[in-house]
Records
---
Amino acid sequence: MKSKVVAALAATMAIGATCAFAANPFVDVPSDSWAYKSVVELADAGIIQGVDGQYFQGNRNITRYEAAEMVAKAMAHMDKASVEQRALINKLADEYADELNNLGVRVSALENRVGNVKLTGDARIRYRYQDSYKSEKGLDKADVAGKKSDNSWDYRVRVRANAQVNDRTKVTYGITTDARNFSSNGPASSENNPYTDIAKVDYNFGGNNWNLSVGRTDAYVIGGPRAYGYQYGDIFDRAELKYQNDKFAATAGYGKFKAEAADDVQDLYIEDSLAGTSTIDGVKTGYGELEGFFGGGRAAGSAIGVYYNDFTRAGSEGKEVAGDSFYGDDLWGAYASLNLGKWNLLGNYEKVNFDKDRATARSEKTDDASVWIGKLTYGKANIATPKSWDAWVEYINAQDGAFIGGSTNSWRFGQMDNIESWGVGVDYTFAKNAMFSVMQSFGTNAKDGKDINDPEEQTRAQFVFAF
């Protein structure tokens, strides 16, 4: 093993010019040996120490822990390495990740090394089923298309590049295929090309407590990542400033939604004259979040938070836009996430206040709307930890108009508001970086039974592979 590790490390360390006249530290490596230069360079850099301080013993096999110690020392010299050399050190760090962790060296620390570029991504294959059903609006009655056969299957692939510019600045760029449905009968060449879903710069300052993020993010969850994610989880162009310590976090930002209405979200509350125009893209929002973290022992990681969003349709200046179905004026919400050992209890409340003029123009419903969500989870599935799993049950009670449109971070699809529904699910990591999930709704009812029939139950199952 030793020859392979030493050869790889020697190839990474371009420091020969600084140690060309260094003294030979090992009595068993003659100056005319083919390995002399590399051994002297590695010893001078502090990567290898030999045996008893004077013998190299090049024919002796070394343990994985000794190899990991050499890799850890190489990591300390990453700033002297080229892009190709850093790639080799990264590869060795991945190979000896467990041993490095036991030595107290976090492989993730490589991400903070200047000039490091890391590629990641994921692939998802998804199945969703819901039978068709009848919806009513006023005197009209229409079929709400379900998801069956080929229409139940889709896939998505995403790739991300994370580049460390310096010890405080990181650039992230990513592309996605978006969800590609198997029901299409056209040629593959007719499908849209992948597009940029993330392109941002993050600058960390103020003792690593402050972070300024500018650009496009692939997922903006109203309420933050610890909330349920009822509202929106797709492309968002914004500038965001966040302060966080061990007890408190404050976030403020301003941006614009950039994803069209997803095909898995149906707006059942648009009059026929406005059909097909349900979208949140082009809507701007200023937002703020306050979060507190608490708990120790079994309750460690618990949190509470409040948040607010103010919405403006771009170009409308608060006035009605022909064919525009977006009616939100502002939104506020609160969540609480309580950890009890392997259990987590999440409660989330949101209220949407309507733009009265716009809401009146599109329908007779002008009342503000709210949603209550509760979720109880046992265990924690981690895609990097084989055989980890969790199981959960949730309850959602959403008034008509509580969902503002666009997308959602929920597993649910189709009708998102004017419902009362339960759901259960299981997530299981069956191999490293490979997770299987299954979800099922039950007890679903329309809250306004006069306007819409009860929706059919939903089934979802998916495989996610990270790389």
Note: The radius of gyration is 28 Å.
---
Amino acid sequence: MTGVQEFPLPPRSEKFEELLKLRLDEARGARGTRETVTVDWNGQALHVDVIDLPLEHLLYNPATHRIRAQCSHDREREKTLRSAPWRNESQDYLGELLQAMPTNPTKRDPEFDKLKEDLRQYGQNEPGLVTHHGILVNGNTRAAALRQLGVTSMRVGVLPASFTWDDITAVELSLQLRNDSRREYSFINRLLAIDERIRLGIPREAIAKEFRCAVKTVDQNVWILQLIRDQIERSESEGASLRLVDFEGMQERLKELHRDYTNLHKADPDGAEVLKEYRVAALLLGFAKTDVRWIDEGFYDDYLGKELPERLAPEATAPAAATTVIPGLGVSMPAESDKVKTARSIAETVLRTTAQVHARQIDEDVRREAMDTLGETKDAFDEAIDHAGRTGRLRKKKRLAQERLKDATTSLELCVSEVVKAKGARAFDVEDFDEALAEFRTVVRQLAQQVSRGNDSPGAGTKWLMKAAAVEEEE
């Protein structure tokens, strides 16, 4: 299975081919230093000639990773783009997306305006890159900015005529993933690029090197993309579904979810699934990373179940069997627990209603009902997260003093070891150590005073502390 979508080659007139050949011949036959651009292709340096071509003849690349996820913003225009990428309406759609914010394609990206202003002031410093059919492999965003500035031509390096879509993708990635890249791929587009390389059969170690990250980061990205795709599939309802672009801007929250899910799954697989469902729901409801952290595997029983309106509460089901049999295989697997079923039900409500609210073409009554449901669910999550946060912060405060004392105990154990070592080496300074002990005595006395206040039934440890402080007072 190939990881690259292969679009049909654009229909090109003989006039364009003649112009391309003429410009290349002129560049190669010119006296003086020829301008070339070097690209990394299959681990080798490939030097290609740079020529000047009319912008009207250059085409935006429908397979560019720059806006791969954002293409799903408008489903109808995306269908046209996939079936007829070289039509004017498809090229216009790509041009709009290249100017838009990755997280919200309805808004213009300030970074695009910065690039446009830079080109206006200083011109084109680096050449773009095109195929023999005029498809922009690198420089799509620059082409969009130059067109807005009214520039009629663009300097581009021309790739060999034999290049396939796989070659085009490899070159684009090698250029865009350089450390000096002006504008990085958005989060989802980076996930898609990694997934594409995996589907091409490239080893994870090679992908990690290509994307300048660790192998475990590649694995994390694979997990996150599969999670996103699962949520999109589950969200389908009333002809609407979530889009890849809906998950832009969630990078840190999804990475944190992967880490917490992985750690919990080792000891409690069901708990990890419950955690994942509620946190995904909270992400789509727009809660911040600091809020989502308070959601754990006991979130529903402890907090959400008390806040969720009755009409939105999952229906009670009969006790599940301990195991379930996979049809056709006769293999028994542990059945899904009631807690997981409840979590999935609530998460799917959020997934479907979110998709319906964002859908462009949907019945207004359905949208209105979805908005009401989503609003009530968000209010319930808000209250539940607030309670969970207050409880968690209180729990931390209650444990803070004990944790400090444990740290002090560990330090004292290390101190004993250092005293032994110093005496063995005859390097123990009695006077300095005595001064440190005097400071320690003062702190112990203050601790005893605070702990003894209002403590009518002191334990063994508190009694010892109070007795030690009392001995100090007598002396």
Note: The CA atoms of residues 36 and 49 lie 4 Å apart.
---
Amino acid sequence: MRHWWALLIALAGTIMLAVIGTTPPAPVAADPSGGSFSAARAMIDVRAIGHTPHPTGSAENARVRAYLMQRLAGLGLEVRSSGTPMDAAVAARIAAWNKTPLVRPDVVNIVATLAGRDRRRPAVLLMAHYDSVWGSPGAADDGAGVATALETVRAVLAGGRPARDVIVLLTDGEEAGLLGAKAFFARDPLAKRVGVIVNMEARGGGGRASMFETGADNGAMMRLFQRAVPGPVGTSLSVFIYQHLPNSTDFTPAKRAGYAGFNFAFIGRPGLYHSPLATPDALDQGSVQDMGGQVLALTRALLAAPVLPGKAADITFFDAFGLALVAYPAGFGWALFGLTAVLLAAAAWRERGGRDVPRGIGATLALILLSAGLLYLANLVSGAEGPVNYYDRLAAIPRLQVQAGLLCVAAVLAVGAWIAAGRRSVAGLTAGAALPLLLLGGLAQWAAPTVSYVILCPLVLAAIAAAVGAFVGESAGKVAGVVAGALVIGFLGALTFQLLQAVGPDTPYAAALPLALSAVLVWPLMPDLERRRTLAVAGALILVAVGIALWVRLDPLAPSVALFSRAG
């Protein structure tokens, strides 16, 4: 316990894995065979679509529509437009939102069909929206999604005529209230032929593309996703969370109507959401490659399936650093819960660590309260306590992430200084620190089993490391702790990074739970700390975080802020 080497090695592994899990792949140039997804090719369409704002009903919207219909026809698809007149109230609202009279008060979808070899089979629908908000070129939202659909169809055609139809639905009026998608699924006769949907969206301008939402009863569909998609990104946690958020995409009306499907998006570079700066040059081409690679692999698997997977019970799934998808029946979480409890109890008994169990329990509870409190208060200092511009807060997310990271480290050090001195049993400390979290994991497994992996998988690795140390020896236990620590903290670090991108401006204290889970692995590797010096370091980190919060609060409105959100 006197040296830092074990913790430093674990943290080095953590950083490497977290970077792997959050970094998009490099964009791919156009290949001679044409069978791969190429971000370079997709960007040609992004530049044509997203060089200027094109909201619903505008002349630019009509220009983009004409370009897209020509592109789809050039690929050999049967193309038509499908217009739905707006009622007077909707048209007036959109005209006021666009701050310009409507050229055409209709919502006009583009519907294109690539005929498959067997047209009796249910079709695969690729969906994205081609309108932007007023004042934003919309290169990412949703030029990237539209371009991904076009490049996916081109790559599919490079392999010959598919076994079943591909329908491309490019909706209009998404930004005005999902108008095009609602019209298609309510009235278009082609909707009855749809067997599965792949939707593409964006909220920002970069980052990993994640499959964040599915239709109900996703078990069989997700097994196909697991087999088909290399480099997958997606979690059943995001599926659960999105079910309980007020947010919506074009997939929302389809999901409510009972369609099976997959929803992809990237949310990095969040300041570019609905921004006048959301140009093609600002878009991360790696994110386009990431989304396109996953969408193409999934689309090919769906097209090739003799029968599309039917409804089956939801499963628990998560990606391991974007390298592979881990999936298991939701009920298997009870086995993880039981194994963790047995291993922790056995390890603590073996080391006679009962005296350290209460210390560990107190440490976890103190860390959760301290970190959540610091994160909440610093967020207030940053300006979250009053009326805020949503888009200005999005632009501040990178600084808010650094602020949260400093506060989390400070909290771990402060609590670690209290528990390090006088501990006798690593297993006892680990068991105690894990116990409140294990009880929370059991509650999650009972109430929402597809999200319990976030708690139970880290805890089972911590329990294995503690058991190795107790039954094999201290050196072996330290090695096991380093490996488990790198895996767990790297995984939770990547998850927290994405979590703060999604909800950081509003609820940064959501990071308290993954922090507490990480601390179960950190504290056993931490050497004895001199309390006064450690608390001084923690205090310094808090002061720096408060300085960042004041910087965010006092900064002028970001130039990336959506034009329609500005006062006046």
Note: The CA atoms of residues 281 and 447 lie 45 Å apart.
---
Amino acid sequence: MEQFTIATVAEQSPDFRRVLWTGQHTQLVIMTIPPGGEIGEEVHPDTDQILTFVSGVAEATVDGETKKVTQGDLVVVPAGARHNFVNAGPNPLVLYTVYGPPEHADGVVHKTKDEADAAEEAGLDQPPTPA
């Protein structure tokens, strides 16, 4: 059994992205976005994503609709939706997200967005292939 005190684990991580757990059909990831930073506009063609915000304030854009999100909010991003989340506050934006199916390499840690982008561009952040 895997168990996480998820808000505490997320708050303690300084990393842009850290994969906590990867299953056959879903993946749990924590993220910390610095002030002024963003996840980066993206589309996951075959992956649904659910983001839960632990602390901070963000501007969430999903398929052209933009809303402010804060601690305790949850945003659903259906597969194929263009989306981005921008830290709109003075403190780090902390969140956890569930991907279905997995989106990133199992156990991967990216300390910064630049590191994450470089790994993705180099093909080094591929999810495990389904069994």
Note: The longest helix spans residues 113-121.
